């Protein structure tokens, strides 16, 4: 290319020689020199374009969907390029600098800039994960959309026989990390047409010894309590958690603002959480204080099976603004506000203590889990405790042969690994589920009781998209409220869920 540029300059001088022989005036000579300089600059610009085109032609073709394009040896990880196809290049019959680059050239230019910067991207559950060139920074958007419809019938109370729709979750957030130790996560939920901060924390993780890790998280934290209570709303095998998770719970609910250290080993984990109120609590008085701990152990753990044992408990001292302990707990579906088991009015609470146990596991595509819990709510004035009791037994079978989405690190369910996704021509994963659950508030004179039996089917189109259907037969016997006495009926619910 250097020789070509030199030749072009010599040609320009040869062309200019006759004109110089005519002894032009100073003004004509200056004009001629400017014209020749412009021509030489144009020639150089064309050569630069040609060099760029040759470099682009020498680059490897962009990867087709599902392939991985390698980066330089100094890059921390390969770049995974998805949904990108190579467009044919069209050679124009005129000077390249007169025509803007076409779509193919623009795409390759962006790829070159990304490769030069060393930024790598990998596609996971529907959204990309970004890594910096040095591997220090990671970033990933995240969210979930859970859309439900529910219809109840068979009750002797007409006001319970209703059909409703709702967004179980409508979340948007992000997560990331700096280096191998620091990490963070933030999510907001919009499902009630209000902005509600849910998970929001920063954390630090490290290794104590081979097979022994820890992390510490501080911020607005999700409870580590019970098996289904520790499972995210987008990963529960049923459309609503069992009564153990919804009734044997701190007064502040599933979230609290505080700190949670966790310890992980090869066959289990343990956590300890100290929190105050939710992030949107009352700052006019002191927060409630909640101390919560959980441990799980897998005494049997193979590639195709796990035995799960778990224990958990909490104790809370209630704020002066949180002394009302009235409970109205879901029994036959979240989106029927009339279908609840009620404790009746209850005030004067000073604190609560709860505890529970978990026993279950899976073998191949079949899983089973039993849970039980008890909560004692302390009352002022020397009154006896209000005692809540709940238990459940549930199970599932992946008829497509997929393994249950059990997470042995956390002792809970996560997103499944679908063997043959629908979007790749397979059937997806199909799971049949069943559960019996029981709830008892009858320790109070105004307290009710209830039970529910659920059968369901989950169709996982891929690892982050699912369709759920639950059919529930429920029974309640409330002693207070608008629906007193024995009552039973059915609820059929369906959900479309996407997690990314």
UniProtKB/TrEMBL annotation:
This is Porin. It holds the Pfam family Porin_O_P. Keywords: Signal. Residues 86-112 are annotated as: Disordered. It comes from the Bacteria. The lineage of its organism: Bacteria, Pseudomonadati, Pseudomonadota, Alphaproteobacteria, Sphingomonadales. Residues 1-21 form the signal peptide. InterPro entries: Porin_dom_sf, Porin_O/P. The keyword Signal applies.
